[in-house]
Design brief:
The protein has 281 residues and is an alpha/beta fold. It contains 12 helices and 11 strands. It has helices at residues 12-28, 41-49, 78-81, 106-116, 119-122, 126-131, 176-188, 204-214, 228-236, 246-256, 261-273, 275-278; strands at 3-7, 33-37, 55-57, 67-73, 88-93, 96-98, 101-103, 159-164, 193-198, 219-221, 240-243. The chain has a 5-stranded parallel beta sheet with strand order 3-2-1-4-5, covered by helices on one side. Strands 10-9-8-11 form a 4-stranded parallel beta sheet, with helices on both faces. Helix 1 (12-28) links the parallel strand 1 (3-7) and strand 2. Helix 1 packs parallel to helix 2 and helix 10 (246-256) packs antiparallel against helix 11. The longest helix is centred in the N-terminal third of the chain and has 17 residues, at 12-28. The radius of gyration is 20 Å and the shape is elongated. The model is unreliable at 147-153 and 258-281 (pLDDT under 50).
């Protein structure tokens, strides 16, 4: 039996972008058992929920003594690339650290060089880089298993607008006052909507501050109250998401399934480039 190991030590957003590659890997190796080696808790949880992954390992030690038909490393930092010489495999794809030198496959080096020119010029990102490891597969979008619900099931009530009040990168973070100002401007324009607050338990203080400043009852507070699958279901039911957290943005894009993966990526990049203080809706 074929066994394929995918090394993805990055965070949730990177795992979501990996699903396009994983779908391609399924096409190329339909009978293979796909094992994912991860590290970040949210990415590991996502991998366990994904039908594209058969088994999940949270440390290299868990793979001791195992042999793989192929190893695909999606990360270029030395910690991940340094695992290559330590694993047992027949084929290896992706960056690898050999005698202190980081080496890349030619196609991956080319795409990464284009990315360094700037996203506006190159229009490539990690999805394209990882897809180059399975060039024989058909292109696919990022993927998340939805619940099958559609927005029309809840009738014609107010629009549901999700607010992710925080993100890991403080340079992208919007002040709570900006979210409140956005709501007041939408209300002044006559829009009917309900805010849905999203976030981890660590962001409850931000949610409390928002509720105090907003001062209205048209609000659903889910901060600290959802698992990853629960967050995905909440995102699936939204009409609009306002977030500077790229992990949540990638998950929302995968849930929406609207347009091509390239169109969705370009829209996310446009919002991300504007930054925390300059973004306007």
């Amino acid at each position: 039996m074929e066994r394929a190991l995918v090394i993805q030590l990055a965070k949730l957003g990177d795992f979501i972008q990996s699903t396009s590659f994983l779908a391609g890997l399924r096409q190329v190796r339909p009978e293979a058992e796909i094992c994912l080696l991860g590290r970040e808790p949210s990415a590991l949880e996502a991998a366990r929920l994904s039908p594209l992954v058969d088994t999940v390992a949270s440390s290299p030690e868990a793979l001791a003594g195992q042999r793989f038909t192929a190893v695909y490393n999606l990360n270029s930092h030395p910690e991940a690339a340094g695992l290559g010489p330590k694993l047992k495999y027949d084929q290896y794809y992706g960056p690898i650290l050999i005698e202190g030198e980081l080496r890349f496959p030619p196609a991956q080096m080319f795409l990464m060089a284009l990315m360094r020119l700037g996203r506006r010029l190159g229009r490539f990102n990690l999805v394209d880089v990882w897809a180059s490891l399975v060039p024989e597969a058909e292109a696919s979008s990022t993927f998340w298993p939805g619940s099958g619900k559609v927005k029309k099931d809840r009738g014609h009530g107010p629009a549901l607008i999700g607010l992710q009040l925080s993100c890991r990168n403080h340079l992208r973070r919007w002040p709570v006052e900006n979210f409140v100002a956005l709501g007041r401007e939408l209300a002044a324009l006559g829009h009917s909507f309900t805010f849905v607050l999203l976030g981890s338990p660590e962001e409850k203080a931000l949610a409390k501050k928002f509720r105090a400043l907003w001062g209205r009852n048209d609000l659903i507070d889910l901060v600290g109250g959802t698992s990853l699958s629960g967050l995905a279901e909440a995102l699936e039911g939204l009409d609009l998401l306002v977030s500077a957290d790229t992990g949540v943005m990638h998950l929302a894009a995968a849930m929406s399934g609207r347009g091509s993966s390239r169109q969705r990526r370009c829209r996310q990049e446009q919002l991300s480039r504007q930054g925390a203080q300059g973004a306007k809706l």
